[in-house]
Automatic annotation (TrEMBL):
GO molecular-function terms, A-Z: glycosyltransferase activity
Name recorded for this polypeptide: Glycosyl transferase, family 2
CDD domains recorded: GT_2_like_c
Source taxonomy: Bacteria, Pseudomonadati, Chlorobiota, Chlorobiia, Chlorobiales
Any coiled-coil regions, as ranges: none
Domain Glycosyltransferase 2-like, residue spans: 13-121
InterPro entries: Glyco_trans_2-like, Nucleotide-diphossugar_trans
UniProt organism field: Chlorobium ferrooxidans DSM 13031
Signal peptide: none
Family as reported in the entry's similarity comment: Belongs to the glycosyltransferase 2 family.
Pfam families (UniProt xref): Glycos_transf_2 (PF00535)
Assigned keywords, A-Z: Glycosyltransferase, Transferase
Length: 340
């Protein structure tokens, strides 16, 4: 959308949707309470067949529906929404979210303070815990995404499986490595320049890949804890499922191959290959579904080899556009989050 409010940047909320109309309606009801006036909403229906969806979306101010003939996942759905936006900023958002009324004001204010802002992330809390009167960080982003030099992501507020209570310990905004796709606020023109998300990722880690490419281009990623989002979580894929393991392992290795410089790749890739084998063996101990989980790692490795030419083509594009060396991008980050 183009802002009709003088002096306020326009923002489009892009929501890829697949089934679960009740969840989308709850999200849109919450967004309707947002106090930022220059906001539009683009719902991208990922190949769904739900009757009446267009009429439901039209009930909301400045909201529109884009339909796709197939499910392109979070990455492809967001990219399609990006094509339909002319706003100054966009927020790529999950539909299993609720929002503080001032969440967007806080993000826009932070973005206007620095014209080198690539992406921003709000504080993301667990919706289920919040409904029980608890303030617990959400697994998918928490207080801001980070990464170690081996390529394993973690967050302020959670590591592999440990999740912290929100006691205000991360209430000072800070530079982070990646902004969560639960609610990823980005500069629209920059996102378009970088080609949006990697559509081949489909889901899982696409926001880390895009954030990484932004940082390589010299832009900053920051947390804005005064902006608060609640996230239900597990709506697309249940945690620990073989399919989620597959996407996480496949996309993580592809991300390293695309974005690391040659010296970093020569150091990290042999270690990661050993760790991938270790992960496949570890999943054999995880019941139920141990064989499927272990097999997902091997399938991810096989698909990476099959798509090697395409990954290398994308790598050449990323490396040609690089403005910063790895030593700058990874400054202060540990080799492994276990040593953090």
């Amino acid at each position: 959308m183009t802002s009709s409010v003088p002096h306020l940047p326009s923002v489009d909320i892009i929501i890829p949707h697949f089934k679960r109309r009740d969840m989308l309606e709850r999200c849109l009801d919450s967004l309707a309470e947002t106090r930022y006036p220059a906001m539009g909403i683009i719902v991208v229906d990922n190949g769904g067949t739900e009757a009446g969806l267009v009429f439901m979306v039209k009930r909301y101010r400045n909201a529109r529906l884009v339909r796709l003939g197939e499910n392109r996942g979070y990455a492809g759905g967001c990219n399609e929404g990006l094509k339909h936006s002319t706003a100054d900023y966009v927020v790529f958002m999950n539909d299993d979210t609720r929002h503080d009324p001032l969440w967007l004001d806080q993000l826009v204010t932070a973005a206007r303070e620095d014209d080198r802002t690539g992406a921003l992330q709000p504080k993301i809390l667990s919706m289920k815990a919040f409904e029980k009167g608890q303030k617990v960080f959400d697994y998918a982003g928490a207080a801001g995404g980070m990464i170690d030099r081996l390529g394993y992501p973690w967050c302020f507020g959670r590591t592999f499986s440990a999740i912290e209570m929100d006691r205000g310990q991360y209430d000072n905004g800070r530079e982070i490595f990646w902004a969560s796709g639960v609610a990823m606020f980005v500069n629209r023109s920059l996102a378009e320049e970088l080609g949006g998300f990697d559509g081949e990722f489909f889901m899982q880690m696409e926001e880390i890949d895009l954030s990484w490419r932004m940082k390589l281009s010299g832009y900053t990623i920051r947390s804005v804890p005064s902006s608060i989002i609640l996230h239900e979580g597990g709506a697309s894929l249940p945690g620990g499922s073989a399919e989620k393991i597959y996407f996480n392992h496949r996309n993580n290795i592809a991300m390293l191959l695309k974005n690391l410089g040659i010296p970093g790749l020569l150091l990290v890739l042999p270690l990661r290959l050993l760790l991938e084998v270790a992960a496949a063996l570890f999943y054999l101990t995880q019941f139920p579904g141990s064989l499927a989980k272990s097999g997902a790692v091997w399938r991810a490795f096989g698909d990476t080899l099959r798509h090697w030419p395409d990954i290398m083509k994308k790598r050449r594009v990323v490396q040609r556009a690089r403005q910063l060396p790895d030593r700058t991008v990874f400054k202060g980050l540990p080799l492994t989050l276990l040593l953090r």
